[in-house]
Write a structure and sequence with these properties.
The structure is a homodimer. With about 170 residues, the first copy, chain A, is mainly α. Chain A has 7 helices and 2 strands, in the order H-H-H-H-E-E-H-H-H. Chain A has helices at about 25-45, 55-65, 70-75, 80-95, 115-135, 140-155, 160-165; strands at about 95-100, 110-115. In chain A, strands 1-2 form a two-stranded antiparallel sheet. The two termini of chain A are about 30 Å apart. Chains A and B meet through helix 1, helix 2, helix 5, helix 6 and helix 7 of A and helix 1, helix 2, helix 5, helix 6 and helix 7 of B. Chain B binds a DNA duplex (23 and 23 nucleotides) through helix 4.
DNA sequence: TATTGTTATACTCTATAACTATA
DNA sequence: TATAGTTATAGAGTATAACAATA
């Protein structure tokens, strides 16, 4: 999924004079529009660090869970192992992440941040939080909390784990 | 962006025992997780019609705005013209959309639904609404309205049009 | 036999740019 | 000159499958 980093025509959530019909009432459509705006702003703000949303997630997850195996990272991020390899390769080339040999399992690596990676993540996190505040600035603090909680509940149901457990 | 229609490992919004750190507090992360779940469920539910979210949006927009030009559709959906061509081609091959010659401008087409497309859109819309209700079933009706309103406000600010207008 | 990380390969989505036929 | 639709091409992202090393 490549998205324009700096679109010639900025994204317009609602084009004047156009009927959106049933789309207006769909939560899915609202989420997708919000996601487009968020993704766009994220890419713009983090371009100097060459950090994309998946890269940022990987960086934080590795930082918070030192010694993580690549296969575990893949599962957490819901990507194939080969996708995790690409992600870790990119973060390694940026000098942020390294693969440590595992003492207990010589097939596996223990993922960890480098010193440079730790420093970078601090600056990157500040930028990401500024971005997040910027996008949610039209909501009160209380609303932001409510919104996160509602989205979490939505994602939680999701049918996924539940449906699978119930033999979907 | 290709996503698994039926993942071997269902998407887990939160893997037990894993620290998500700063990600937990980010609206962007919450929106992305919700979007993953929505997309997954949509694809699963609409697979029999070979309808993806972008195709559904295009179908509804064409239905609600008869005579639309392909370039206008591209702008509304925030894709390149070439992308709109692919979309309209797919919907044409499904027999849902046709390109009518424009009388006023012989370069342009007027997009319209076929009779089959109108019938299909009715059934598809019912399925999409069932999907949307399914995902948002953990929220009260009032919360769903609130959630949509908040997402709309978020997307509305967005910096996009505003930032562009202010000479970003 | 199963798992870890890797690589090769392919597919989807979507962008840019060039082209044609009109305007 | 500019615009509408199209096509060719390329790139990002990510999946599947096969592989060697290790469990």
């Amino acid at each position: 999924m490549k998205r324009k980093a700096t679109p010639a025509e900025p994204f317009q959530p609602h084009v004047p004079g156009i009927e959106y019909g049933i789309l207006e009432g769909l939560l899915g459509f609202a989420v997708r529009r919000a996601q487009l705006v968020l993704y766009d702003d994220f890419m713009r703000a983090l371009a100097p660090w060459q950090i994309t949303p998946p890269r940022f997630s990987a960086l934080v997850i590795i930082s918070e869970n030192p010694g993580l195996k690549l296969t575990e990272l893949a599962k957490i991020l819901a990507v194939a192992r080969s996708g995790a390899v690409v992600l870790v390769d990119a973060l390694s080339e940026l000098g942020y992440v390294l693969r440590r040999d595992s003492v207990s399992d010589r097939r596996a690596f223990q993922l960890a941040l480098t010193a440079k990676g730790r420093r970078a993540l601090q600056a990157i996190s500040r930028e990401v939080q500024a971005h997040d505040r910027r996008i949610s600035s039209m909501l009160s603090k209380q609303e932001q909390v409510q919104l996160r909680a509602m989205l979490r509940r939505m994602a939680g149901v999701s049918g996924r784990a539940a449906a699978r457990a119930s033999g979907e």
